[in-house]
Write a structure and sequence with these properties.
By secondary structure, the chain is of the alpha+beta class. The protein has one domain (26-225). 16% of the residues lie in helices and 34% in strands. It is built from two helices and 16 strands. The protein has helices at 2-20, 227-248; strands spanning 34-35, 50-51, 58-60, 63-65, 67-71, 75-77, 98-103, 106-107, 115-119, 125-135, 139-151, 164-171, 176-182, 194-199, 209-214, 217-219. Strands 1, 8, 9, 10, 11, 12, 15 and 16 form an eight-stranded antiparallel sheet that branches. Strand 15 and strand 16 form a beta hairpin. The longest helix has 22 residues, at 227-248.
C-alpha cells in the first residue's frame, strides 16, 4: 500500500513537468511572413540586409550586428551576404559568420513551390523559412522545408526557448549538408557548433533545437539543466517527501 501513498506526490511532480514541456511542432510558426522575391527564383544568391528592428542588435562571436543576410542555400550570414553552395563543417567554413539551417546547394529557379520567406513581425525576432526548396540543378523531385529563428540580445524569450532556433519539416534531399554555427574563421573556436554534417534528409528526424548566446558564443541549453526545470523537479520530489512523512506519522 505504501506505493499508492506515494502516487499523489509523484503525479504532482509529473503534472508540473508536463506543463513545462515545450509544444512539439515541425516548424516554429506557420506564418512565414513575406516572400523574399530575389532569392525565391534563383540559384546561389542572397537577400539585402534584413533588420532586427529599431534598437535591436545581436552579439555573434564578439561582433555586434543589427541585421543579417539570408542566403538561398539554407543559411544566414552577418556582415555580408554570401552565395557559397558547397557545404562544409561549420567550424571550417570561412565565408562569413554564419548560422546554417541546412547548408547545401538548394535551387528555386522556375518552380512556383520553392520559395524563401522572412517574418519580422516582432521587433528583435527574424524567422526565415526555406519552403519546399529543390536541389541543384533544378531537381524538384526532392524537397526541403525548414526554419531558422534568430532573436536579438534585447528580445525577451521564454525560459523553455532560446535565442536561436532550428526547426525542420519534411526533407527528402539526401545530398550532403551541414547545420549549426560558424564564426567564418579558419581556426576552430569555442561556440562553433555542428548540429550535423551529412545527408540533408537526416535533419528531418531532428527535434526542434534552441540555443542561447552567452557573450555572443552559442551555448546549447540542453546540456545544462534550466533553473525552472530544476525547480519543477524539486516540487515533484517535495511531493514525494511529504507523502513519506505522512506515512511515517
Amino acid at each position: 500500500m505504501k506505493y499508492f501513498r506515494l502516487l499523489p506526490g509523484l503525479f504532482t511532480g509529473l503534472a508540473c513537468l508536463t506543463l513545462a514541456a515545450p509544444a512539439s511542432a515541425a516548424l516554429y510558426t506557420a506564418d512565414y511572413g513575406n516572400q523574399i522575391a530575389n532569392i525565391s527564383d534563383c540559384d546561389d544568391c542572397y537577400s539585402s540586409p534584413v533588420s532586427l528592428g529599431s534598437g535591436q542588435s545581436i552579439n555573434f562571436f564578439g561582433s555586434t550586428y543589427n541585421s543579417l543576410y539570408v542566403g538561398s542555400n539554407g543559411y544566414v550570414t552577418f556582415g555580408s551576404g554570401q552565395n557559397g553552395f558547397t557545404p562544409a563543417a561549420l567550424d571550417a567554413q570561412t565565408l562569413a559568420p554564419m548560422i546554417a539551417g541546412l547548408f547545401t546547394d538548394l535551387d528555386s529557379r522556375s518552380d512556383a513551390l520553392s520559395n524563401v520567406y522572412v517574418n519580422t513581425d516582432l521587433a528583435g525576432q527574424i524567422v526565415v523559412t526555406w519552403s519546399q526548396m529543390g536541389h541543384y540543378s533544378q531537381n524538384y523531385s526532392v524537397r526541403s522545408t525548414f526554419q531558422l529563428v534568430i532573436r536579438s540580445d534585447q528580445y525577451g524569450f521564454d525560459s523553455s526557448e532560446g535565442q536561436i532556433g532550428f526547426f525542420y519539416d519534411t526533407i527528402t534531399d539526401a545530398s550532403s549538408a551541414s547545420a549549426g554555427f560558424g564564426d567564418g574563421l579558419s581556426t576552430v573556436n569555442d561556440g562553433e557548433v555542428a548540429l550535423f554534417f551529412g545527408p540533408a534528409s537526416g535533419a528531418s528526424q531532428d527535434d526542434p533545437r534552441w540555443f542561447r548566446l552567452r557573450d555572443g558564443i552559442p551555448d546549447d541549453p540542453a546540456s545544462v539543466p534550466e533553473p525552472g526545470m530544476a525547480a519543477l523537479l524539486a516540487v515533484g520530489l517535495l511531493g514525494l517527501g511529504l507523502n513519506r512523512r505522512r506515512k511515517q506519522a
